[in-house]
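Module 6 notes. Inverse folding takes a fixed backbone as the condition and produces residue identities as the prediction. Think of it as a translation problem where the source language is geometry and the target language is the twenty amino acids. Below is one complete input and output pair. Work through it position by position during the lab.
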């Protein structure tokens, strides 16, 4: 099982992680805003995650952490 954690306080909603994910696991939130006024990334389809960490490597703010069980 893979756990994807996104620090919504740090995320600026740039969408680089969404574009980097080969499985379409992430999406920018359409309903949430963080304290800075950005729509943060969120895990939309967690069961599709293959733990490639492309999203974490692409994030310029180091807001994503990938953990494998």
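Target side of the pair, the amino acids:
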């Amino acid at each position: 099982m893979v756990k994807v954690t996104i620090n919504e306080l740090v995320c600026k909603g740039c969408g680089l992680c969404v574009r980097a994910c080969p499985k379409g696991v992430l999406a920018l939130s359409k309903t949430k805003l963080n304290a800075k006024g950005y729509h943060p990334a969120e895990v939309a389809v967690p069961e599709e995650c293959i733990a490639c960490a492309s999203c974490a490597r692409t994030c310029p703010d180091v807001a994503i952490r990938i953990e494998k069980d």
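Reference fact for the lab report: The CA atoms of residues 3 and 20 lie 17 Å apart.
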